[in-house]
Design goal:
single chain; 189 residues; alpha+beta; two-stranded antiparallel sheet; 5 helices; 31% strand
Length: 189
């Protein structure tokens, strides 16, 4: 299933048949995933969906809408070919358990998260199960670019009408740390 959101077409990777691959991320990938989770969570305690994906976790929201400004108007120009490449690199999911475990974080499987939100008490059940977490976050596989930079999709959900999804541009600095260069929101709730 595909849908357009803010001029950006996202492949919905929430199908139960779309299981994460057995590929284990390299340590350099883990540092990029960690940087993306930090940006998405706004430095708050969060739970991370245990595998990469693109999409909007609508089961956790009462509603969402496209962002008022296009990515270009937010300082992140994205050509159609770059957008398609980000979709293509996310045609399969990748496990994040090792990355998150190595950074003392909490993960949840997509199926478990959907089950938590299966009734109208979803956020109440989420907070009971993860009392220290303020939100859950999902991240995509990164699109690595030639100039030590990468694009990655992140989404955060904190309540029925509190969440956002964006594409974040990172650049690796001289010390190997991934630093946010730009961020363009695609949708908000």
């Amino acid at each position: 299933m595909r849908f357009a959101l803010g001029g950006f077409v996202l492949a919905v990777a929430f199908a139960r048949t779309d299981r994460p691959s057995g590929h284990r991320p390299q340590q350099s990938d883990c540092s990029l995933f960690a940087a993306a989770v930090t940006v998405a969570s706004d430095f708050q305690r969060t739970v991370v969906i245990d595998s990469t994906m693109l999409g909007t976790p609508m089961f956790a929201f009462l509603g969402a809408s496209g962002y008022a400004k296009k990515p270009e108007e937010q300082g992140l120009a994205l050509s159609d070919s770059v957008r398609h490449a980000l979709e293509a690199v996310n045609s399969r999911r990748e496990s994040l358990r090792e990355c998150v475990r190595s950074r003392s974080g909490s993960t949840v499987s997509f199926d478990s998260l959907v089950a938590i939100f299966a009734d109208t008490g979803g956020w109440k059940q989420f907070r009971a199960r993860y009392p220290e977490a303020k939100s859950f976050v999902l991240v995509s596989r990164p699109l690595l670019l030639a100039d030590s930079s990468a694009l990655i999709y992140v989404a955060r959900a904190s309540d029925w009408l509190n969440g956002a999804g964006s594409i974040v541009a990172f650049r690796r600095d001289a010390t190997g740390r991934w630093m946010r260069q730009a961020q363009a929101f695609l949708w908000v709730s």
